[in-house]
């Protein structure tokens, strides 16, 4: 099946000469959740703006469901919902009218039943008659999501959707996103909260300096770039690491009380068992052990920090 979004050699250079995107290639599969991670100025919002038809590319092309976003602007825009970073709403309009009007802007006929469902799903139903200025920042963020869903899009872009939202509301939004994915909506999420990507994304893309550094399935990324460690608290400190153990991923803490073993997660049972057996043969005993794994945040920092 063809991807719902296909991006090829996409570039964007602004009038001042700043090159925001440098040859982006990306396919987004139907029904997946893709998390785009990157620091401020990496090019995330520019990429979204071009796909959504808000900005024009300098080069390359973008297809949404096989349609070009420049040549078939109205059609592709009707397929996409966008939740922007900024809280741009009419502060004196009601929630109901705001969301209903947004549906009309995309050329869709009035559908009160759908608007009601969206508001209920986002816990906004009891606020439907409130004006936007009466809502908290978190509730205003929910209204933006409701507006983006009002015209029943195939693709939903969430550009930092939980910025300024408390943890409870953030968890609620993750549940809404999961529900949308089950309904077949494709979701592209940009975020500074790495735990969001770990929680809900199928694939993770890392963008920095206008370049897409990688796009991987989350589990594959963790397996390839994540590091696992076995930490052994020794029964008695060691003055030095025996030479028989040098060069195989084993290190001794400065105070000699702990051994740290970096191991291959694909063969962890065999390698750990072999290590423990060898330690016992050398009369090195431990009183406690634990494991830890590199987080997605660690991987992201390493990738962005190492990119030039």
**Could you say which structural class the secondary elements and strand pairing correspond to?**
alpha/beta
Corresponding CATH architecture of the largest domain: 3-Layer(aba) Sandwich
Distance between the termini: 35 Å
Largest sheet, spatial ordering of strands: 6-7-8-3-9-10
CATH topology of the largest domain: Rossmann fold
**What is the CATH top level name of the largest domain?**
Alpha Beta
Using DSSP, what is the number of strands?
14
CATH superfamily of the largest domain: P-loop containing nucleotide triphosphate hydrolases
How many helices? The count is 10
DSSP strand content:
25-35%
Question: What would the average pLDDT be, to the nearest integer?
Answer: 85
SSE string, helix = H, strand = E? EEEHEEHEHHHEHEHEEHEEEHEH
Main sheet?
A: 6 strands, mixed
Rg from Cα: 25 Å
Estimate the global geometry from the Cα principal axes.
elongated
Residue runs with pLDDT of under 50 for 5 or more positions: none
Protein name: ABC transporter ATP-binding protein
Keywords: ATP-binding, Nucleotide-binding, Transport
Domain ABC transporter: 5-234
GO molecular function: ATP binding; ATP hydrolysis activity
């Amino acid at each position: 099946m063809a991807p719902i979004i296909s991006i090829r050699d996409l570039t964007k250079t602004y009038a001042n000469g700043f090159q925001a995107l440098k040859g982006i290639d990306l396919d987004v599969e139907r029904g997946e959740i893709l998390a785009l991670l990157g620091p401020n100025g990496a090019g995330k919002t520019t990429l979204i703006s071009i796909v959504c038809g808000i900005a024009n590319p300098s080069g390359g092309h973008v297809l949404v469901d096989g349609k070009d976003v420049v040549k078939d602007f109205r059609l592709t825009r009707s397929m996409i919902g966008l939740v922007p970073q900024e809280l741009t709403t009419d502060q004196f309009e009601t929630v109901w009218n705001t969301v209903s009007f947004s549906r009309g802007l995309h050329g869709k006929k009035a559908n009160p039943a759908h608007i009601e469902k969206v508001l209920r799903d986002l816990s906004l139903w009891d606020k439907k008659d409130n004006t936007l200025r009466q809502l908290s920042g978190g509730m205003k963020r929910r209204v933006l999501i409701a507006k983006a869903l009002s015209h029943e899009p195939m693709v939903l872009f969430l550009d930092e959707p939980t910025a300024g939202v408390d943890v409870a509301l953030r968890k609620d939004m993750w549940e809404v996103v999961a529900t949308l994915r089950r309904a077949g909506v494709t979701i592209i999420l940009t975020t500074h909260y790495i735990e969001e990507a770990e929680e809900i994304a199928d694939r993770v893309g890392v963008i920095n300096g206008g370049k897409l550094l990688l796009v991987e399935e989350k589990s594959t990324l963790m397996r390839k770039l994540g590091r696992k460690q076995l930490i052994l608290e020794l029964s008695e400190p060691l003055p030095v690491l025996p030479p028989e153990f040098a060069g195989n991923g084993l290190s001794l803490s400065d105070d000699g009380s702990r051994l740290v073993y970096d191991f291959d997660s694909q063969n962890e049972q065999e390698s750990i068992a072999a290590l423990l057996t060898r330690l016992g043969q050398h009369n090195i005993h431990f009183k406690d052990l634990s494991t830890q794994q590199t987080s997605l945040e660690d991987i992201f920092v390493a990738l962005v920090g190492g990119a030039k």
